[in-house]
Amino acid sequence: MNAKTFLSELEEPKRPIVKIDILSDNVWPSCFIGKRYIERAIENAKKTYPNTEFEVQWRPYFLKEDAPLEGMKLTDFYKMMFKDEEVVAQKMLARKAS
Fold first, then answer.
1. pLDDT class of 91 with cuts at 50, 70, 90
2. Which residues, other chains included, contact 77 with Cβ-Cβ below 8 Å and sequence gap of 6+?
3. How many CA atoms, within 13 angstroms, populate the side-chain half-sphere of residue 3?
């Protein structure tokens, strides 16, 4: 490190960093809703604390561990989870698409 680099580090205060680890199942509707909530919360916090950085790390978590490894159609998954209620499955798909 040269003197110029050292002095510039002294002059520029380090920005606080908020690290957030999130465990989430990316196909589960409530996890998707939670994603939107955390995004809004970060946006609001940046307005109050503009010098703060936010680092979000998404980690996989499977709420339905017995789902087939080869995967399945999303409509079939929702039907299975919601006891073949076609209307509920269609609403979930519509929300996911928007």
1. confident
2. 27, 64, 67
3. 0
